[in-house]
Write the structure tokens for this entry.
Amino acid sequence: MDFRKTAEHIFLAGVREVLPGKIISDLVSLRGSVLKFGDHSADLDKFDKIYVLGAGKASAALGHYLENILGGRITGGQIVTKYGYFCKLKKTKVTEAGHPIPDGNGFEATREILRIADMAASGDLVICIWSGGGSALLADYPGSSTVQEIMFFNDMLVRCGASIHEINTVRKHLSNVKGGLLAKHISPAALITLYLSDVTGDPPEVVASGPTVPDTSTFSDALQVIEKYGLKNDMPASLLDHILDGIRGINPDTPKPGDEIFAGSKVLLAGNNMKALKAAAAEAEQAGFTTIIADPELKGDTTDTCSHLIDLINWYRNDPGVRKPVCLLFGGETTVRVTGDGLGGRNQHLALQTAIRLQNIRGVTFLSAGTDGNDGNTDAAGAVVDSETVHDALSMNIVPEDYLGKFDSNRFFRRAGGLILTGPTMTNVMDIAIALIE
């Protein structure tokens, strides 16, 4: 058995389960004029106009399959997605924009989303589609700041090592659209929110920074994140002043649970990492592996995660009571505090760290990849390694530690082999890691 290829097949089985076409066909249907979405339903004949708004890597593709169901009932709309994740729609405009650092297209598309939201009236329906990446793609900034300042600060945020929960807590308090504020513009129109989760625990207020759901975070929480990661002295003064004015009560906080703007709105989780992990587990079992979803909520720094993974691999490898071969599955999203200027991402960085730790542990293959097909500032989804990766690299005069220290894992795998290249998958439910033990 080619364990590297097998690991990749298991990963791709998980991705297929959360592709937009399958998600929409599983959850959404139209019978006559009644739209069913999950356990909810709505009679579309009761609405004058129907608008579709969205942001995220999967939003355009989800919008495409939704449009296939709703057809000509859609009046119009605006979706903003990452470059390379474009999908042309008949009724809804799709704009590609910068991620994770916003650009001019993102700011323009967000203004259009706000314009449509303000235009929606009490007899209308607004369907919002959010997925991972939406926080950066929904691009705006406080009136006292500038485009350049918010772009600069976004770069600081995504490189500081903060979790996506922490990053989005800050983003929500520097925005007029995130953290439930878009719902303010949509009200009093009816509102349906479909979201594809790319965060552990699936809280809707974190995905795309929760533009249409209540927000429990505060300006004080945002300041704590800024201080925790040492950003306060280097961030633009206008953005810090906006946060501080919010703490003082000068700037209103995001709308909280119980706010009347959310009365009657419906929220549906369309898919998540666990859905992908279960499909990957079924594929592994069919291939003859004893399969365990060992940890569905990987988080924290990649270095700590690597130690956690090696401990679990050794435990299952050395337990005579566990039938071999074994497939351990992991889901979630780690963080990496980048100090070098190399090419890579959290999955490739984790795979390289794991390869170094596996060089003295025989018979283990490890894969880590993003379900969106894009890891960090590269075109790779992640990488696959095994117990021989480091030995093979050294035989080619490639020193793994040199690349790890420079956060240059992508160039290591380009030379040594092991990159997982899927191209944009049009979905995004965090990462999947796989350990195969012979």
Observations:
- The chain has a mean pLDDT of 96.
- The longest helix spans residues 302-318.
- The chain has two domains: 20-140+175-217+254-271, 274-437.
- The domain at 274-437 is CATH 3.40.1480.10 (glycerate kinase, domain 1).
